[in-house]
Amino acid sequence: MGDENKKVFRTKIKGSVEAIWRELTKTDTPQQAVFNALMVNTGFHTGAAVQMRTADRRRTLVVGEVLEYDPPRRFAHTFRFTQFDDAPCTVIYELFPQADGIVEVTLTVENIPHGTRTAKEMDQGGTNILANLKSVVETGTVPFGTRVMYAMFGVMGFVLPKRTLAENWPLQDRDAG
Predict the structure, then answer these.
(1) 35, 42, 124, 143 — which has fewest CB within 10 A?
(2) CA distance 87 to 78
(3) What are the pLDDT digits (tens) for 72-129?
(4) Exposed (0-12), middle (13-18) or buried (19+): which is 101, by Cβ within 10 Å?
């Protein structure tokens, strides 16, 4: 019997650990692997705030807090969709170099609030993130269909709930006043 509140996704990517790590942690350009969202944060220390925003920075889609940052092997943070009232879950990326330039990447999602919209989104989200990560590292971009989807995200941002507006989600560390 499996743990309903935990999902584990894995893939093997032909590329360097550094390239994969960069795609998962970069803050200077949108992350093609993670729905073309832009990671903004207050740093990579425990307790630092982390958010995933639309590429134009107008909407905050996900908020969280850094739990672990051990480059280039492990990155863990809490994860909560801003458009849902669900409790946060934990996202953990782990990179395991193999022989012949292959890296096994594991994405583990823990504490998924059972029966919620977050749980439903995470069912497919993990698979998509790793497939896109593989494509970005191995080819330099995501598949054409994904690029079309991202273009639609950019055009259709206005349909997102007002609660996702970035001004509703100030970026600050857990321990900040």
Answers:
(1) 124
(2) 10
(3) 999 999 999 999 999 999 999 999 999 999 999 999 999 999 999 999 988 889 999 9
(4) exposed
Radius of gyration of the chain (CA): 16
Is the separation of the CB atoms in 88 and 78 below 8 Å? yes
The two tokens of residue 91 are: 């996202």
Query: Is the peptide bond between 143 and the residue preceding it cis, with omega within 30 degrees of 0?
Result: no
Q: With contact defined as beta carbons under 8 Å apart, do 95 and 86 qualify?
A: no
The token pair at 20 is 């994969």
How many residues are recorded in the chain? 177
Q: pTM score, two decimals?
A: 0.92
Q: Is the Cβ–Cβ distance between 32 and 139 less than 8 Å?
A: no
Residues 12-52 pLDDT 10s: 999 999 999 999 999 999 999 998 999 999 999 999 999 99
Residues 166, 57 contacting (CB under 8 angstroms): yes
